[in-house]
């Protein structure tokens, strides 16, 4: 499980991800710190606003939206293994 920082640009409207943490407690305390305006000791902690380089060349201001909970994708290599097995079968015929 990961908690990804989400920002939304006021100018272009783009929502994008910032940093992430695997700890719900760290995400929760970081979100509280942002809301209370308390500077965090963690240099990777999000700020309430940040500058966004918009795709159209504009320079926007993005707001911290919160932490999105995301399931970690399994790094299954099943397709690769299946492909390898087919190759081996052809070699050993
Ligand atoms: Zn933007």
Brief description of this entry?
This protein has 93 residues and is of the alpha+beta class.
| DSSP helix fraction | 25-40%
How are the strands of the biggest sheet laid out side by side? 2-1-4-3
Rg, please?
20 Å
Ligands (ions, cofactors included): zinc ion
Count of domains: 1
What string gives the helices and strands in order? EEHEEH
Biggest beta sheet attributes: 4 strands, antiparallel
Amount of beta strand: 25-35%
Name the shape in a single word: flat
In whole angstroms, the N-to-C terminal distance is 44 Å
Compute the average pLDDT: 86
Q: Structural class from helices and strands?
A: alpha+beta
Number of helices: 2
Poorly predicted regions = none
Q: Give the beta-strand count.
A: 4
Protein model, in words:
The model has no long low-confidence stretch (mean pLDDT 86). The chain has one domain (2-91). The chain is built from 2 helices and 4 strands. A hairpin with a 5-residue loop joins β1 and β2. With 93 residues, the protein is α+β, with helices and mostly antiparallel strands. It has helices at 24-36, 78-91, and strands spanning 2-9, 15-21, 49-53, 59-70. The chain has a 4-stranded antiparallel beta sheet, covered by helices on one side. The protein binds zinc ion. Zinc ion (ZN) is lined by residues 9, 11-12, 14, 52, 54, 60. Zinc ion binds at residues 9, 11-12, 14, 52, 54, 60.
What is the topological layout?
Layout: E1 2-9, E2 15-21, H1 24-36, E3 49-53, E4 59-70, H2 78-91
Antiparallel strand pairs: 1-2, 1-4, 3-4
Bound molecules: zinc ion.
The site of zinc ion (ZN) has 7 residues, from loops.
